[in-house]
Design a protein that fits this description.
By secondary structure, this protein is an alpha/beta fold. 37% of the residues lie in helices and 10% in strands.
């Protein structure tokens, strides 16, 4: 393991330990991505008092859902799963069609609102802090991502402890520690969301180029991390 990665891991452990002690109750909102599996491993191997939950949108790849059982088998941890309101999904499909998001960005964002944003809001209710696996190098919309920031939408503190990590460091961690990960990564996927909204990417593309690829790169966020102005929050990070 490289000295640089070892330093990253030590800083991650300190950050997560501080979150658990100073901001309870805290939670990791896991998309079951490679990044979130790094944080999941760091939390569970250290026995930290941080809840881990995921959002099952109803349109996830089967390979993504398999990680829920993989986490249970590896760590003995039952991941909490939050789902969208069935009535809201049904009304959307009846009114617009199941895959209307391909034709209209507003309808894509509404689908994300129903399937991801609303369940996240319920999952974070009562929490003091939430943790994400976002990295600055993932896309143009995340280049100014803070390590710690106030979340004006949910009124809690948000931590992005992997903000400075590179993609190669994420994978070095996973391979060194034999952490479970989504099999789709071995098929050319580099950022994985709902099945109809995700495609594999080529090495020269942006990491998140396969997410909502039919849209302009500046709009490729689902709404989970947007501020009241509809833009990705780029709040000056707090002192650690």
């Amino acid at each position: 393991m490289s000295a640089r990665l070892q330093s990253r891991i030590e800083e991650l452990a300190r950050t997560l330990g501080r979150v658990a002690l100073e901001h309870p109750p805290a939670a990791l909102a896991s998309s079951l991505s490679a990044e979130d599996m790094v944080i999941t491993d760091a939390i569970l191997t250290r026995g930290l008092e941080i809840e881990i939950f995921t959002l099952d949108t109803g349109r996830l790849h089967a390979d993504t859902l398999k990680l829920i059982d993989a986490i249970r088998h590896r760590y003995g941890y039952p991941l909490r799963v939050h789902k969208p309101e069935p009535a809201a999904v049904e009304q959307y499909v009846i009114r617009f069609g199941r895959d209307a998001f391909y034709d209209d960005t507003a309808l894509r964002k509404r689908c994300c609102e129903i399937r991801k944003v609303d369940p996240l809001r319920r999952a974070l209710a009562g929490k003091s802090a939430w943790i994400t696996g976002m990295r600055r190098a993932q896309s143009v919309t995340r280049g100014e991502l803070a390590l710690q920031q106030a979340d004006p939408v949910h009124g809690i503190v948000k931590f992005n402890p992997l903000a400075q990590w590179s993609e190669s460091e994420v994978w070095e961690y996973l391979h060194e520690r034999d952490v479970p990960y989504n099999a789709l990564y071995d098929q050319g996927y580099r950022s994985i969301g709902c099945a109809p909204c995700t495609r594999p990417t080529t090495p020269d593309e942006d990491v998140r180029a396969g997410r909502w690829w039919w849209e302009d790169a500046q709009t490729r966020e689902c709404g989970l991390h947007l501020g009241p102005d509809g833009r990705l929050a780029r709040v000056k990070e707090h002192a650690a």
